[in-house]
What does this fold into?
Amino acid sequence: MSVIVDISSATKSFMGVKVLDSIDLKISSGERIAMLGPNGAGKTTLARSILGFYHLESGSITVAGHDPIRERVAVLEKVAFIPQLPPPVKLTLDELLDFVQKSSGVARNRIESFARKMELDIDAHANKPFFKLSGGMKQKMLIAIALARRSALFIFDEPTASLDPKARKLFYDLLSSLDYDYSAIYITHRLEELEGLINRKIYMELGRVVSDEKI
Amino acid sequence: MGNLLLIAYLDIKESLRSKWFYVYTFVFGGLMGLFFISGITDSVVMGFTGLSRLLLIFMQVTIVILPIFILITTVKSISADRESNILEYMLSFPISLRDYYWGKFLGRFATVFLPVMMALIIGIAWGLYKGGEIPWGMVTLYSLLIFSICTVFLGISFFISTLVKSHDIALGLSFTVWIVLLAFIDVALIGLMMQNRVSDQLIITLAMLNPLETFRIGAITLFDPELTVIGPVAYYLLDTLGHGFLMLYAILYPVVLGALFTLLGYTLFRKKDIL
It folds into this structure.
């Protein structure tokens, strides 16, 4: 199995507080990880560092051999991300689809197909600004976009926080039906929901990986 | 280039739906309308009447409201997106920081520059309708000056927007910049002169560094070649540097300053944590 994410001695502080404390982690292709830990453990910071949003103080991160800061486009071509809370993007759904299509080369009908499977009718809301949709609809849209990108690595930060039980089930069913060998990091507090979807469990605390086990 | 234009295009579309854009367009369009109704084109001041007079008044009002409009509407372009996690999501797609930053700049430039230019064009059309002739020299100079002032204040806004993480602090900083620059046009400079505590050279340098002062000088030189209406510093600059150089400086200096601030903002955007 090839290594998709290679994190070596990654350290990051905010205002003198170490949020990532010398983290070493390798994620191979096909590994689907539940990232667990209390608030402030460093889970989101680690995810954001993989996405190239933070400059590490020391250590390194590579994604498929690329540096997320210096080669961010090459990295982000391989990663799809769903944030914890849907951002109040002011673009209409139509414009957002246009943005995704042109920036990531994803066919619009692929996104629409995933949206339909999530029971979201994009056409009915195409001219509505994204931020005016309900919380659940926004999250469904973000899920449809992420899955349509067919990325080598998914980073999902509490992806089901705004979804009702039915929509959660649809999301997990969709993930199970993906027909290729993707890797995933699920940042979550609800381990029980990910049963059957994950094959590795990492627990973080105070910026450190305190347990790492294969399932 | 494709992604840069995509970001610019989406930013323009987003701006066209924003309330600030309607207020902005209404203010400049409304000003022109107000000038027509109040009959400025028929009044005579210092021997100037008709379209020239209208354009002069327009530029005088522009100097007060355009910079603050640009600052408060643009300073949030990156800082507010960062605060609301829009940046986190939009930059999780394979877009380079260069394309995102310069695309935003290009889009925002179009949305602040074009309404003011439209108001200027409406003014010219009205002047022609009233039977005047187009003062081409003046129209060209004013278009260049508006371009310059938009560039410098957009540059400052983008710099603040990338420097500061909080939207509120960015807004406060932009107000401070505007007030300081406004204070250091001739009125405050005369105050400094009268106190005799600082050298004349410093006062002249302050005037030359202030893009609002250079804009004022550039806008009024055509009307009042002696610059007697705006104070002794402007008069001194005219006398020392000459008319041609002063005009060139009034157009080029804000563009260079704006480009420097924009580049500095871009460097910060690349070198600092994005979130």
Remarks:
- Chain B has one domain: 2-271.
- Chain B has 13 helices and no strands.
